[in-house]
TrEMBL record:
Keywords: ATP-binding, Cell membrane, Hydrolase, Membrane, Nucleotide-binding, Transport
Pfam family, one: TOBE_2
Official protein name in the record: sn-glycerol-3-phosphate import ATP-binding protein UgpC
Entry keyword Secreted: no
GO cellular component, one term: ATP-binding cassette (ABC) transporter complex, substrate-binding subunit-containing
Protein family membership: Belongs to the ABC transporter superfamily.
Organism: Albidovulum aquaemixtae
Domain ABC transporter residue range list: 4-241
Highest taxon, organism lineage: Bacteria
Length: 359
C-alpha cells in the first residue's frame, strides 16, 4: 500500500502545447492517503482515464511528478509500480478454473504454492466464490467474472494501489448494488489504497471516502460525498451530483446582496469581493412551497412515491423543488422559498459566498 502524491501534474497530447486549452489535464496537486478509498468522478472526456494511465505508468505526464510514499515513480514502467488494475471488461482466462485465475498473479511472481493456496482461499472466501474454485471461468456469469477480476487485483499483498476503471459498466443494473457493496466491504477488510474511476455518481458516492470531481481536465472539487452534496464548490458539481441536480439561477449582485427575479435572496453568508457572472445555487431539497417568496408557475410534477419533484418557471429560469405530501398541479401559481444556510452565490461558476450568518 502507498500514499500517492501528484505534484503539479499536467498532460497534453500535443507535441508543443501553447496554452491551457491544449492540455487534456490541467495542473493537478493532490494526495491520496495510504489505505484510503477514493473515486475519480466526471463525464466522459474529462481526463479521468488520462490521469489513471499516468498513475499506472501507461502514460508519462508532460509536466509534474507522481510519488508513491514520497518516492518519485514518474519514469518507472507499469511493472515496477506494483499496481493492480480492474477494467470495464473482466480480464480473466476463460480456459482456466477460478482457482487458477486467482493464483495466476502470484504464480507469475514466483510465489510458493503453499502461500498461493492460502491466499487464493482467503480471497475466494471474501468474494463468496469458494464453491466456484474448480469451475472453468468460461462458465461464469458476467458479475462473477468481474468478481474474479477484482480478486486477481486483491490476491497480491504487495500492491501499492488497486485501480478500478469503470468496473461495473457491463454489469446488469440489478447486480450493480450487490457488487458495489461487496467492493466496499472488501476495502474495509483489506485496507488497500483503492482508486475507483467512474462517470456514475452513485458508484462514486457509495464507494469512496473522498471523491475527486473532474471537468474538462480540471479538478473542481475534492471532498466527502456529504461535502459534495451539501456545499458544491462549483456549479458543475452541483449539476453533476444529485438527482435532480442543483438549481443554478441567474443573479444580480448589488449593495452586498443577491437578487433573483427582482427579489432579494438570503444567502448562507457574506459575498466575497469580485466581479463576473453571478448565479445563485440551491438544491431542490432546500426549496419549499411557501406563502411568500419567488412567484413561479408549475411546469410539471413528477410523483416519485415518497415525494414529488415540482418543476416551476420564474421568468426564464426553471426551478426544481422536492415536495413531500400534497403537490400543486401543472399550471398552478406558487411561491418558492430557499433555505438560507443552503443557498449560495457563485461567480463564474465558483462559489463566492462565505459560510456564516445568513446575509
Amino acid at each position: 500500500m502507498a500514499k500517492i502524491t501528484l505534484e503539479k501534474l499536467r498532460h497534453s497530447y500535443m507535441a508543443d502545447p501553447k496554452g491551457p486549452e491544449d492540455y487534456a489535464l490541467k495542473e493537478i496537486d493532490l494526495d491520496w492517503e495510504n489505505g484510503g478509498a477514493y473515486a475519480l468522478l466526471g463525464p466522459s472526456g474529462c481526463g479521468k482515464s488520462t490521469l489513471l494511465n499516468i498513475i499506472s505508468g501507461l502514460l508519462y505526464p508532460t509536466e509534474g511528478r507522481i510519488l508513491f510514499d514520497g518516492n518519485d515513480v514518474t519514469q518507472l514502467p507499469p511493472d515496477k509500480r506494483n499496481i493492480a488494475q480492474v477494467f470495464q471488461f473482466p480480464v480473466i482466462y476463460d480456459t482456466m478454473t477460478v482457482y487458477d485465475n486467482l493464483a495466476f498473479p502470484l504464480r507469475n511472481r514466483g510465489v510458493d504454492e503453499g502461500h498461493v493456496k492460502a491466499r487464493v482461499e482467503e480471497i475466494a472466501a471474501m468474494l463468496e466464490v469458494t464453491e466456484m474454485l474448480s469451475v472453468r471461468a468460461a462458465h461464469l456469469t458476467a458479475d462473477n467474472k468481474q468478481k474474479i477480476s477484482m480478486g486477481r487485483g486483491l490476491v497480491r499483498d504487495d500492491v501499492n494501489v488497486i485501480m478500478f476503471d469503470e468496473p461495473l459498466t457491463v454489469i446488469d443494473p440489478h447486480l450493480k448494488w450487490k457488487l458495489r457493496s461487496k467492493l466496499k466491504e472488501l476495502h474495509q477488510r483489506v485496507r488497500v489504497t483503492m482508486i475507483y474511476v467512474t462517470h456514475d455518481q452513485t458508484e462514486a458516492l457509495t464507494f469512496a471516502d473522498q471523491v475527486v470531481v473532474m471537468q474538462e481536465g480540471e479538478v473542481v472539487q475534492i471532498g466527502t460525498p456529504v461535502e459534495l452534496f451539501e456545499r458544491p464548490a462549483h456549479t458543475f458539481v452541483g449539476h453533476f451530483i444529485g438527482s435532480p441536480g442543483m438549481n443554478v439561477l441567474p443573479a444580480e449582485v448589488r449593495d452586498g446582496a443577491a437578487f433573483f427575479a427582482g427579489q432579494r435572496i438570503v444567502l448562507e453568508g457574506t459575498i466575497s469581493a469580485g466581479s463576473g457572472r453571478h448565479e445563485i445555487g440551491v438544491r431542490p431539497e432546500f426549496v419549499a412551497l411557501s406563502e411568500a417568496g419567488v412567484p413561479a408557475t408549475v411546469r410539471k410534477v413528477m410523483d416519485l412515491g415518497r415525494h414529488s419533484v415540482v418543476e416551476a418557471v420564474a421568468g426564464d429560469a426553471r426551478i426544481s423543488a422536492v415536495v413531500e405530501g400534497a403537490a400543486p398541479g401543472q399550471g398552478d401559481t406558487v411561491h418558492l422559498s430557499f433555505k438560507p444556510e443552503q443557498t449560495r452565490l457563485y461567480r463564474d461558476g465558483w462559489i463566492a459566498s462565505e459560510k456564516g450568518r445568513a446575509a
